[in-house]
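Trying the structure run again after the queue cleared.
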Amino acid sequence: MKLSINQIKNANLAWIHQVFVVAGDANPVGTTEYYKLQIREVSSAIKESRIEDITLKIQVDVINEDVLDSIKQLLVNNTTISEPVEVISAAVWLPVKMTITPR
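Done. Tokens:
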């Protein structure tokens, strides 16, 4: 699911396990850099094809510390997320690169 920063506060996010933040559009081919925040452990019982269903994607113009802190605070304040506030607050944004190659 994709949301803007403004939609996080009131969205039902009870289902999310992880959050991805990307600046601009993800590249259809090539390398995309984004940040990942793990809200809760992804069970091995969840099939890889279902990962999309438990991932929140947020697209922003620019990624910086202030933007990531703002998103994390909105997640902490969202009452639909079942994880304790302490867990979300302690979670760390991880920089990730994903490369997609043409077939």
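The chain has a mean pLDDT of 86. Worth checking whether this holds up in the mutant runs.
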